[in-house]
Design brief:
The complex is a heterodimer of chains A (530) and B (313).
Chain A (H helix, E strand, L loop, with lengths): L1 H19 L35 E6 L16 H5 L7 E3 L5 E3 L2 E6 L5 E6 L13 H11 L13 E8 L2 E6 L6 H4 L29 E7 L3 E6 L13 E6 L3 H9 L5 E3 L2 H9 L3 E16 L9 H10 L2 H7 L4 E3 L24 H10 L7 E7 L2 H16 L3 E7 L1 H10 L5 E6 L5 H9 L13 H12 L3 H18 L3 E14 L2 E2 L15 E2 L3
Parallel strand pairs in A: 1-10, 14-15, 14-16
Antiparallel strand pairs in A: 2-3, 4-5, 5-7, 6-7, 8-9, 9-10, 11-17, 12-16, 12-17, 13-17, 18-19
Helix pairs in contact in A: 5-6, 7-9, 12-13, 13-14
Chain B lengths: L1 H27 L5 H4 L6 H11 L5 H13 L13 H36 L4 H15 L2 H15 L15 H34 L3 H8 L4 H38 L5 H11 L2 H29 L1 H5 L1
Helix pairs in contact in B: 1-12, 5-6, 5-8, 5-10, 5-12, 6-8, 7-8, 7-10, 8-10, 9-10, 10-11, 10-12, 11-12
Chain lengths: 530, 313
């Protein structure tokens, strides 16, 4: 009798807890088995009549920054934290198109080697130093010096010349066109030369050129910004304060937005349904230039054979990978999605891309009918490992044994590119400011993500020509040709799918734009009066 | 008592040195982060240059002794990634973690002793059984699950308390407390259950002792018997359990701070591990080890206070 009563009490307790937390309530979850269709939906635009001039916008992101000096940051993510403080010469808009910023206009020379930039006038750095051509030259020279984070991106720059107070000319060795988008990132951010040698700028920047100054900073936890007075581009500044919070926990970030502590965050697949189920939340999404990649080290004898790389390409079922990502990653067979200027229209995913029988034939043609084995490093997050497991099963079906080695994100490049302890890697390829950087890293000899030194003369020639092209149209044709060649010979980097990035925001937030290059910029964001 | 404290402090020093060596050695096994710090698409030369800057070209023991020597002077180094002094990072994060642990311990003590006392004074009744079940469930529930359920219940379904964030006590005491209730409760559930079980067992046993019967026979009220005699004698095992739970709580802050976006030491440790920010990880771990040793010292002193035989021995 006593035991029965005890048991009933235990059951009651669990039931109470379940009821209290609404475990039984309908969250709109249909079981999670159906695949979501990727879509594009704009976030709410700014309604000037509703803008609160005292607005405070809060963004919560997964990773912190590594300092506030654009020349000494050590991760791409850090740029997000610099955009409010430092304006760059060029601004790449949400669609990925370069737009004027501190450089009001620019022109590429007839020979394609130099870039003349006109600068805005009447603007000063936050410490009162005038913004002029001398300061631009000083910044660019500092960014391209050895030891700067931006040195590789600017390695083609030969000289920066001051023409007059409002004009500079940047001369390159092989082509100036790639510089335009590159100057939209940290390499083009302008900092007061008066504070160049002050190491405290890493934690306490005072020489910015952007719409905000830093009010307070707790590394790894939060960054608080305050708007500057009389900003040169008032249309781009619609809030009084901004806070960037940092949390690596997906649920915590979503909870923060759903309960009003933050205004916006990005969503991973596992957060999507919960965000959509909240009536007060707005979910918007747009395709990005990022992709999931499967990259091979051709130092491994089997991967040096084009037939083996092609067999692997045929063996991978991209539709299954898209299903695993719940529609957040659309199948792709080239480095960039089709809407980007550098993509080829001829390389679209088709049913023929998945052909295990063809893969077996190719393996047999090089004497590998019994298959072979290799190791893959993958980020130790659930989704990456699930994708790796799909690939593992796909490859097993054609006789290839793949060992999966999960590692934390910071160790992935170490194991694949530096120590080369793994034969392959699977990760997200983040979009860089210009395709030339990505191509150099993955497809040219000496590239960081090409540790085996794979090379192809035609690809190298096309990469060189694409660097020297003057316009995006001209360069786009060359890149399209390059990616078609890579597809023909099956380069060491196999694109799996292209990512869509959804955001969730509350209904008071306006003007958030989702950037195709995955940069998180909140230029012109606004809050509605409550 | 002073001899006891001196003896414990002296035995802690070699232990700390061993702990520091293990921490340093383990971190070195994770490789070095030079490739991460060497810029976009770094060349081999870029990586080698950064390795040299970080001192990875020096022998292991030289690096260890340099680090240990500086740590003993309060300098835990500089973060590879943020450039901030590790000592400053720890000092700035410490109030958050201490606040969280203090709220959790207060909740664990108040709720645990109350529950244990009620059960211990009513052995064998349905109240006792209900309290025992609560305590058993409490021990079994993981921090993160309790935390998530509390957020769902009290932040999302019923928006009563904030789900994330932290407000300094000095800026807003009410905000400080409201931001710490849910994480504190999530962290307190397990120690509360342990304290309740220990209190219940001790009180139930003490209440059967002859001196309690004598005190009751003298005509003392039940309240005075419990307050004056039973609780103090029941305290030794409770303090033991409490001390162990306090140590566990410090580990629990890693999960809870992550879940509730609290900028404390636990989160600093977690994020530093993922970034392979060795100076930061080493500093936080060594500092945590010192905190655990201090707590153990406090527990030992508490034993001696509650039990004179320990003091004499």
């Amino acid at each position: 009798m006593n035991h029965r009563r005890t048991g009933l009490l235990a059951i009651s307790l669990v039931a109470c807890l379940a009821l209290a937390t609404g475990c039984g309530s309908d969250s709109g979850n249909t079981g999670g088995s159906s695949e979501r269709e990727a879509s594009t939906s704009d976030c709410p635009p700014v309604d000037d009549a509703k803008v609160d001039p005292e607005g405070h916008f809060t963004w919560i992101y997964s990773v912190g920054n590594t300092g506030f000096d654009p020349a000494t940051i050590t991760t791409n993510n850090s740029q997000m934290y610099l955009y409010p403080i430092y304006d760059s010469l060029v601004h790449v808009d949400a669609a990925g198109e370069p737009q004027p910023m501190l450089a009001s206009d620019w022109e590429i020379s007839e020979d394609g080697l130099s870039l003349e930039m006109d600068l805005i006038s009447g603007w000063t750095y936050h410490d009162g130093t005038p913004f002029d051509a001398e300061s631009v030259k000083a910044n660019l020279d500092r960014h391209r010096a050895q030891g700067s984070w931006n040195a590789n991106a600017l390695s083609d720059v030969a000289e920066v010349t001051v023409n007059d107070a409002a004009t500079v000319t940047i001369t390159t060795q092989s082509g100036a066109a790639p510089l335009v988008p590159i100057l939209a990132g940290s390499a083009g951010m302008m900092m007061s030369p008066a504070v160049f040698d002050d190491p405290s700028q890493e934690l306490n920047p005072t020489g910015g050129s952007g719409a905000f100054t830093l009010a307070s900073y707790q590394p790894g936890a939060s960054v608080h910004y305050e708007a500057v007075d009389n900003y040169w581009d008032p249309d781009a500044l619609k809030v009084k304060e901004m806070t960037y919070l940092i949390s690596g926990d997906d649920n915590a970030r979503l909870n923060s937005v759903l309960t009003g502590q933050s205004d916006t965050t990005f969503l991973r697949a596992s957060m999507y349904e919960a965000a959509q189920a909240d009536p007060a939340a707005v979910v918007c999404e747009a395709p990005s230039l990022s992709a999931y990649n499967f990259t091979l080290n051709v130092d491994k004898a089997e991967f040096d054979k084009p037939e083996v790389r092609e067999a692997i390409d045929y063996a991978i079922d991209r539709q299954s990978i898209a299903a695993v990502t719940n529609g957040f990653c659309a199948p792709g067979v080239q480095m960039y999605p089709d809407f980007y200027f550098a993509a080829s229209d001829n390389l679209t995913p088709s049913d023929e891309d998945y052909n295990p029988e063809k893969a077996k034939e190719l393996l047999a043609s090089v004497g590998l009918e019994e298959g072979f084995s290799f190791s893959l490093v993958v980020i130790n997050l659930a989704l990456y490992q699930q994708i790796a497991e799909v690939i593992q099963a796909n490859l097993a079906a054609v006789g290839i044994t793949m060992e999966i080695l999960p590692v934390d994100i910071s160790k992935l490049a170490d194991d694949f590119s530096v120590n080369q302890s793994a034969d392959a890697q699977m990760s997200e390829q983040k979009a860089e400011q210009d395709p030339s950087i990505q191509v150099e890293s993955y497809l040219l000899e000496g590239g960081f993500m090409n540790p085996g030194g794979w090379s192809n003369d035609e690809v190298a020639d096309l990469a060189e020509q694409a660097r020297t092209g003057k316009t995006n149209d001209e360069r786009g044709e060359l890149y399209a040709e390059l990616f078609e060649k890579v597809d023909e010979v099956t380069g060491p980097n196999i694109t799996l799918c292209h990512l869509t990035t959804p955001f969730v925001l509350n209904d008071q937030t306006m003007g958030v734009e989702i950037y195709a290059d995955a940069s998180r910029q909140f230029r012109g964001v606004a809050k509605a009066t409550s | 008592m002073l001899r006891l404290i001196a003896k414990r402090v002296l035995t802690a020093v070699p232990l700390l040195i061993v702990v520091s060596f293990v921490i340093f050695w383990l971190m070195q096994q994770a490789g070095n982060p030079a490739a991460q710090l060497a810029g976009n698409n770094p060349s081999d030369e870029d990586i080698a240059r950064v390795e040299q800057e970080l001192g990875f070209d020096q022998p292991f023991f030289i690096r260890y002794l340099k680090w240990l020597g500086a740590a003993f002077q309060g300098d835990f180094g500089t973060s590879y990634f943020t450039g901030e002094s590790v000592t400053n990072s720890i000092v700035s994060r410490l109030p958050v973690t201490l606040s969280l642990v203090a709220v959790a311990l207060a909740l664990a003590i108040i709720l645990g002793i109350t529950l244990g006392l009620i059960a211990g004074l009513n052995p064998g009744t349905w109240i006792d059984r209900a309290a025992t079940i609560l305590a058993s469930v409490g021990v079994a529930l993981p921090y993160f699950w309790v935390g998530m359920m509390l957020v769902l219940a009290f932040s999302i379904n019923a928006p009563l308390l904030p789900a994330t964030g932290y407000v300094s006590f000095w800026d807003n005491p009410v905000g400080w407390f409201s931001h710490l209730i849910l994480p504190g409760l999530a962290l307190a559930i397990a120690p509360m259950a342990v304290v309740a079980r220990q209190t219940r067992a001790s009180v139930a046993e003490v209440m059967t002792q002859d001196y309690i019967r004598t005190a009751t026979a003298k005509g003392l009220t039940k309240y005075r018997v419990v307050a004056k005699h039973a609780l103090k004698n029941a305290a030794v095992p409770v303090v033991t359990a409490f001390g162990l739970e306090a140590n566990r709580l410090i580990g629990g802050t890693v999960v809870i701070e992550q879940l509730f976006v609290l900028p404390g030491l636990g989160r600093l440790a977690y994020e530093s591990v993922f970034a392979r920010d060795f100076p930061q990880v080493q500093g936080v771990l060594l500092f945590t080890a010192i905190m655990v040793l201090l707590i153990n010292l406090l527990i030992d002193v508490s034993y001696a206070y509650f039990n004179p035989r320990i003091r004499q021995s």
